[in-house]
Structure formats: C-alpha cells, structure tokens
Amino acid sequence: MDLAGIRRLLEPGPIVLVSSHWQNHHNISTMGWHCVMEFTPSLIGCMITSANHSYNMIEKSGECVINIPTADMLDTIVGIGNTSGKRVNKFKKYGLTPGEAQTVSAPVIEECYAHFECRVADRRMLAKYNFFILEVTHARCALWPRFPKTVHYRGEGIFMESGRNIARPEKFRPQNL
Ligand SMILES: Cc1cc2nc3c(=O)[nH]c(=O)nc-3n(C[C@H](O)[C@H](O)[C@H](O)COP(=O)(O)O)c2cc1C
Q: Which pTM does this prediction carry?
C-alpha cells in the first residue's frame, strides 16, 4: 500500500466542523483527523494543517468549537472543506447559524447536533506536527435521536454514513468505555 494512504483505513470517527473566532471574524473548517486523548480532563487531539486559515485563528485565539454534523449536511461538510475562510464567510455561504458558546468566543454551529467548546491546552506538538491538544470546557448534545447518522470519510471523495448499532453485554466491555 501507498503509506500516505493508510489513513483511509484508519478513519478516526465522524467528520466534524471546527468553528473559530478571531478579531471579529468567524470561520469553519472540516476535520477528520482527531482523536480522544483523555477522559478527565476531557482532551481531544487534532491535526489542522498550518496552511489553513483555521490554524491561525485557533492558534491566536486559543479556542474553538468542535461541532458534529449529521449525514444530511454532507454537501455543506464537503463545501466547507474545500473553501478557505480567508476571504469567504462560510457561515453566510453555507447558510449556517452561529450561536453563542458558553465558555469560548468561537461560535457554535446551531445546525449541528453536538457542540464541544474547547481551549488549546497544549501547544508543544504544534510546530512539529500541526497537532493541537484541546481541552473540552463545555459540551452539549441533542437528546434525540440518540444515535444520529454521522458521516465518516474513507478518502478519495468517498464517505460512509454510520450504520446499525451492535450491543454486547456489559462484562465484555473494557472498564469505563
Ligand atoms: C472530509 C474532509 C476532511 C478534512 N479533514 C481535515 C483535517 O483533519 N485537518 C486539516 O487540516 N484539514 C482537513 N480538511 C481540509 C480543510 O477542511 C480545508 O483545507 C479547509 O478549506 C480549511 O479551511 P480554512 O482555510 O478556512 O481553515 C478536510 C477536508 C475534508 C473535505
């Protein structure tokens, strides 16, 4: 296999929309490369290329919101992931509603079903890997549906929707997961 392509077989979870705010300007970016790093405090690691406008906004403000969109938002997700926010207001362009967050100045995206407000907790891997370690400072999630259809990226323009749930008895689960 082409080594750069192995990421396609290791997709980490739902595609998310990262919103940010800096100097009276909102922005949104599409992000697939994220991972949970710790439960308490709640830490999320994510790779945001330094060429992206969002990188500068999050690096300067030290804040962002991770919004989880549903599969019906796929065209918006792809559009946002192919547009730079340097000159375009993506909230306006994609008809999204910025809402007030409780702990950060970055806006939540009202159309998404979950919002995790984050502060940059550790910058040590930024210069080398463009890797932000974020601490979630406040989170909210729609109560229904319990398992909304999320969208996952398989690379080369192919996406998949989350599918059926498979339950296992409690005793087979690793503790706390
Ligand atoms: C499905 C998808 C997933 C993406 N995942 C990431 C990612 O994890 N990290 C990243 O830096 N860019 C990712 N991108 C690219 C950015 O979303 C894209 O460069 C965007 O235009 C950046 O916007 P900005 O310059 O306004 O921040 C992804 C794009 C798509 C379509």
A: 0.95
